[in-house]
Amino acid sequence: MKAKSIIMLMVCVFLLSCATSQQRIQKKREKDPNYQYNLGIFYINNGQPELALKNLERSLSLDPDNTLTLIGMGLAYTMLGQFEEAEKNYQKALSLDPGLAEAHNYLGSVYQEMGMLDKAEQEFLKAATNEKYHSRELPYYNLARLYLAKEDKERAFEYIQRSLEFNENLVMSLNLYGVICEKFDKFEAAIDSYKRALKRAPDEINIKFNLAGAYLKNGDYYNAEKVLLEIKPVAEDPELKKKIDNYLKIIEENKKGLYPSGSLFPSC
């Protein structure tokens, strides 16, 4: 019995020691701005901006001039649609370090969401022309998207080409390149670009839909229908479902005119 009591006492002492040690670690983490920042970014990457803000605010209270934390705050507020708060944090980061290309790029995106296209363009250009910025394909992509919104397809095409020059495998740039090519009726080029994007992101349903649309506009009803029937069962967005059904209806209406025999596609 004595041995058993001693063992139980040792177990209790061990558990108490573990609990005390854990408390010390937790207290240390609460006062560590880097830990709080990293936890905030973790929540941002997991699509939980509300939780991210709690840790980022804690980090900022411990290190008020940390530009990375200010950018993280801006991202969290952007995800929540609170663009004015996002702008304040990006502007504060830039007041501490005007050369932060990443902050210029994010700020440009906020201005575009707020409908301030001229200010957005200025911020994107500051980021794109910063030779120290290692992700210049991103602001060039944003410039292409901005000019597409302005219905200036020539400038949009110019900037999306620049984006792909910096990163030929950037999926969103490959997708946007295809969209812009369609504006010029360059459907073969669009199809090729969508396919390249899907090699790197095979589950992106919106890119598959764009590919189907390019096939359809290029008169390739067989491949258009094949892709549409593939994505229809997994489409969740109501608007996308409506667009898929509309494309399938167009294909169905073209069957008889293309193939009097009643078969949509010729035999292989």
Give the topology, please:
Elements: H1 2-30, H2 33-45, H3 49-62, H4 67-79, H5 83-96, H6 101-113, H7 117-128, H8 137-149, H9 153-166, H10 171-183, H11 187-200, H12 205-217, H13 221-231, H14 238-258
Distance between the termini: 85 Å
Mean pLDDT: 89
| Total count of strands | 0
The computed structural class is mainly alpha
CATH topology of the domain at 187-268: Serine Threonine Protein Phosphatase 5, Tetratricopeptide repeat
Helix and strand element order: HHHHHHHHHHHHHH
List the keywords.
268 residues, mainly alpha, Serine Threonine Protein Phosphatase 5, Tetratricopeptide repeat, 14 helices, globular, disordered C terminus
Outline the structure in words.
The chain has 268 residues and is an all-alpha fold. Among the domains are: 86-94 and 101-168, Alpha Horseshoe (Serine Threonine Protein Phosphatase 5, Tetratricopeptide repeat); 187-268, Alpha Horseshoe (Serine Threonine Protein Phosphatase 5, Tetratricopeptide repeat). The chain has helices at residues 2-30, 33-45, 49-62, 67-79, 83-96, 101-113, 117-128, 137-149, 153-166, 171-183, 187-200, 205-217, 221-231, 238-258. Helix 4 (67-79) packs antiparallel against helix 5, helix 5 (83-96) packs antiparallel against helix 6 (101-113) and helix 6 (101-113) runs parallel beside helix 8 (137-149).
